[in-house]
Amino acid sequence: MTLAHDDLGPRTGRPVLLVHGHPFDRSMWRPQAGRLAADGYRVVTPDLRGYGESKSGESPTGDTKTGLDIFAKDLVELTDRLGLERFVLGGLSMGGQIVMQLVADHPGRVEALLLADTFAGLDTPPAKQARYDTADRITGEGMESYAKELLPKMISKQTRETRPDVEAHVRKMMRNAPKEGAAAALRGRAERPDYTNGLGDIRVPTLVVVGSEDEFTPVADAELIHRKVRGSTLVVIEGAGHLPNLERETEFDEALSTFLNDSGVHP
Question: Which of 116, 188, 249, 267 could bridge across to 66 with cysteines, CB 3.0–4.6 Å?
Fold first, then answer.
């Protein structure tokens, strides 16, 4: 599977791989990619399978779902093609769950972690069913009304009132997400494993970030991850919702840069 991606910064810089959430694309990480590349890191931001400019690929069994293990496998194949043996790995929301899957499958490839606005556990039965129902819905009617409903929960009220640029960017990503890829990811995500116990096996520096107003993965979820990952750092971005990297990019970037420097993960 060939993933569309951006590859910024010096080729000799320490690699950083950033994984977007649902239903977004690699432009979600634009502020962080620019900042880190300017600091001397090599930053790779892919579009996941079925999102952005990356195709959905062929399922050998004809399944209309993409498991998080498939996303993780695609990312490892991308880093192999780019010659990146070890890298800093970050993900937000679904991207964070894909990151947890990748670390479980390939622990030796990762030298530091960013887990932003994500959730390690399983869905409740109603939440799991809601993913299947939403997948069927967007397959039939597309992303327009889904994006409209989701937007007020994605970013905080304060962001909507003060950052029309962020609201427009988030709306555009959601509306433009290919419905087939988004639906396949929802079905696969409904069947994901529980990553909670595996968090205790993580042995690399880890930064956990969450927006104080996140409705999808509230601060309590981030606190749980922080407790499970020994030696991890927790940062709560005040006034931000589910996308603090866009809503409060200055604070988010500073937290990430400080973490990398304090962890000795220099460019």
Answer: 188
Q: Is residue 34 part of a domain?
A: yes
Identify the CA nearest to 114 among candidates 97, 86, 91: 91
* Chain segment 2-58, per-residue pLDDT in tens: 999 999 999 999 999 999 999 999 999 999 999 999 999 999 999 999 999 999 875
pLDDT of residue 60: 44
Tell how many helices (H) and how many strands (E) occur in the chain. Answer: 11, 7
What pLDDT is recorded for position 59? 54
Closest CA to 182 of 226, 141, 227, 241: 141
Bridge partners for 16 per DSSP: 43, 88
Domain holding 133, by residue range, is: 5-262
Residue type present at position 30: R
pLDDT digits (tens, 9 = 90+) for 168-190: 999 999 999 999 999 999 999 99
Q: How many residues does the chain have?
A: 267
Domain count, the chain: 1
Domain assignment present for residue 172? The answer is: yes
Q: What secondary structure, in 3-state letters, does 89-127 show?
A: EEEECHHHHHHHHHHHHCHHHEEEEEEECCCCCCCCHHH
E strand residue ranges, the chain: 5-8, 15-19, 42-46, 87-92, 110-116, 206-211, 233-237
Q: What is the CATH number of the domain that holds 224?
A: 3.40.50.1820
Strand partners, 31: none
Question: How confident is the model over 129-138, as a mean pLDDT?
Answer: 97
Q: Does some domain include residue 267?
A: no
DSSP H helical ranges for 53-93: 68-82
The whole-angstrom separation of Cα 248 and Cα 12 is: 29
- Contact between 91 and 98 (Cβ < 8 Å): yes
The enclosing H or E element of 160 equals: helix 157-162
Predicted confidence at residue 53, as pLDDT, reads: 98
